[in-house]
Amino acid sequence: MADLEIIGIPLSNYVRAIRMLCEEKGVPYKLNAAMPHSPDVNAIHPAGQTLCMGHGDVDLFESKAIAPRFIPEDAIGAAQCEQWVSYGNAKVDRCITREFVVLSIFFDKAKGPDTARINAAIPEIEKCAEVLDDALAKTGYLVGDRLTYADMNVLPMLAAGCMFPQCKAILDKYKNLSAFIAKLTELPSFKNTPPPPRK
């Protein structure tokens, strides 16, 4: 049978989350570094977005469609996982990844970073940290008492934020959240899936 192929931007949090899932399940995969709207991506995703997956005759797009083995089977657990994946994608990814990390790294060298937008993200990061900290208080995981895709989905976003002292200082203030980050970044599945260094 053909190896599973993960198609997407290696720096993407979502690509890393699916790579972690494969590592956790012991599923061999090939990473096909592809940009949005590239031929390999356009062949699978109707909007030309990453990430995508190919496995023999099966093609899938969107990370949650690729992650069913780490979504709880019971109805309540599945709903809670859906809830936290959606929150991660809508809030955590937006305020940490898009409005803080990306704007801090990718900017017009002549103009410099957009500090107004970056600073505006700080209170939103604080809100997300508080919400996640509360959610992790009971078991140390977002859903139930074991690792699920909800955790793997949000971890790369949080880890990216921790590369910046201002964001890390916020996340470190929250006991449950900082313990979650420390514990999950020690997983072999996280350590084995670093994005390539930025050129």
In the CATH hierarchy, the architecture of the largest domain is Up-down Bundle
Class computed from helices, strands and strand pairing: alpha+beta
Number of strands: 4
The biggest beta sheet reads: 4 strands, mixed
Write the topology of this structure:
Blueprint: E1 4-8, H1 13-25, E2 29-33, H2 39-42, E3 52-55, E4 58-61, H3 63-66, H4 75-105, H5 115-136, H6 149-161, H7 165-172, H8 175-184, H9 188-191
How would you characterize the overall build of this protein?
With 199 residues, the protein is α+β, with helices and mostly antiparallel strands. The chain folds into two domains: 4-69, 3-Layer(aba) Sandwich (Glutaredoxin); 72-187, Glutathione S-transferase Yfyf (Class Pi), Chain A, domain 2. Helices cover 55% and strands 9% of the residues. It is built from nine helices and four strands. The chain is globular. The chain starts with a strand and ends in an 8-residue tail after the last helix. The mean pLDDT is 94.
Task: Give a concise summary.
This protein has 199 residues and is of the alpha+beta class. 55% of the residues lie in helices and 9% in strands. Strand 1, helix 1 and strand 2 form a beta-alpha-beta unit.
